[in-house]
Specification:
single chain; about 260 residues; alpha+beta; Glutaredoxin; 2 domains; five-stranded mixed sheet; 11 helices; 5 strands; about 10% strand
Length: about 260
């Protein structure tokens, strides 16, 4: 645990213990003929002495806080899967590859400048090749700076103007070392797209809406890195590899869950 986190916990402990000990202190003051008003320095000294004598309380607080945060995050995810299922799996803004009527949907949040996303492309291509019943949903989730955002805007525009060329575009842009909006534009040109229409699509408000939606869903699901996969209402962070992806997809077919 970081020093700043421990400090924050200590402050919380002092505040909580101060409130707990205040009534006792007032009783003691009254019984001893004191003024009846709390002496802040005295209370702080009591709390400080208590923490020094019982430092393990910080570890207990940290453990309990982590468990509480994890439980709250899980509840929030479950609520999001229920309330925003259409946005996660069937948004008008997303790209769908593979079998559009597949029996299992795999969602990937990615960034064109993410090194692990570049490596993971081979995994998703293997899945598309080997699994004719897989529906793959790609969500632009640029989290690595303005270049990623600019590249994602072009990608969204390409997916709208020439969906049949999107996968080629996607492959080529992931292969670029340092993807930018300019690099994305050059790839679109090389693929023979109508650049006037692409420019119009980039400026269309719906393009920005697509990125905003991805970030909103990711935030609600507690996703903060790429690549991150979603299958059967389960989140798989990181480039987990083809073997793991095939296993969870198989489980989803078998029992409707990532783990049977």
């Amino acid at each position: 645990m970081s020093p700043s986190r421990i400090f924050a916990l200590a402050v919380a402990a002092i505040a909580g213990l101060g409130l707990f000990l205040l009534p006792q202190y007032l009783v003691a003051q009254t019984a001893s003929g004191g003024a009846g008003s709390p002496d802040k320095a005295a209370i702080e000294q009591i709390v400080r002495d208590y923490l020094l004598e019982n430092p393990e309380i910080l570890r207990e607080m940290a453990d309990r806080l982590q468990k509480k945060d994890a439980a709250s995050a899980e509840v929030a995810r479950e609520q999001t899967f229920k309330s925003a299922s259409s946005d996660i799996y069937d948004s008008e803004h997303q790209v769908v590859l593979g079998n559009p009527k597949g029996d299992v949907t795999l969602v990937e949040f990615f960034d064109y400048n993410c090194g692990y996303c570049k490596q993971a492309l081979a995994d998703t291509e293997e899945l598309l090749k080997s699994d004719p019943n897989l529906r793959l949903v790609l969500k632009e989730f640029p989290v690595l700076g303005q270049d990623s955002v600019d590249a994602a805007r072009v990608a969204v525009a390409v997916s709208k103007q020439a969906p049949e060329k999107y996968l080629d575009f996607h492959r080529k842009l992931l292969a670029v070392d340092g993807a930018t909006g300019s690099a994305a534009i050059e790839i679109a040109k090389d693929l023979g797209l109508d650049m006037k229409k692409v420019s119009e699509a980039i400026a269309d408000p719906s393009t920005e809406e697509a990125l905003v939606e991805s970030h909103r869903i990711a935030s609600q699901l507690g996703i903060n890195g790429t690549p991150t996969y979603v299958v059967a209402d389960t989140i798989l962070p990181g480039a987990v590899g083809t073997k793991t992806l095939k296993q969870v997809i198989g489980n989803a077919r078998k029992c409707g869950k990532a783990q049977c």
